[in-house]
């Protein structure tokens, strides 16, 4: 019976040692899982921070883009206005050049008429002098 109790104690001791080893393995696995979970939580927090920073940068870029788009639209309207005014001024300039050409022609005709009148008067004066002499 003593052998039986000794064998039973030996079996309990082996079972106790095996259970202790198994508990230690499970504790190590649990600790590793906890460390991995903590690392994942830190990584998630880092990614959330990066996402927030990226969202803020995107918002800032969007605002700058909208401002530049508005300036471009204003510049486009301004450019269209300037082009319209330029076309109008070019049209007016052409009209003024045409009018200048007409006035220059009238002035030449007027000078020719005056020169012809002067030449006719001189010719008449010369004819009168010639007749008088």
The helix fraction, in percent, is over 70%
Strand residue content: under 5%
Count of DSSP-assigned helices: 1
- What global shape is seen? rod-shaped
**Structural class of the helix and strand makeup?**
mainly alpha
Q: How would a crystallographer describe the biggest sheet?
A: none
Distance between the termini: 189 Å
Radius of gyration: 55 Å
SSE sequence, one letter per element? H
* E-strand count: 0
Quick recap of the structure?
The protein is mainly α and 133 residues long.
Notes on the structure:
With 133 residues, the chain is mainly α. The chain has one helix at 2-132. Helices cover 98% and strands 0% of the residues. It has one helix and no strands. The protein is rod-shaped.
Annotate the secondary structure layout:
Blueprint lengths: L1 H131 L1
Annotation keywords:
133 residues, mainly alpha, 1 helix, 98% helix, 0% strand, rod-shaped
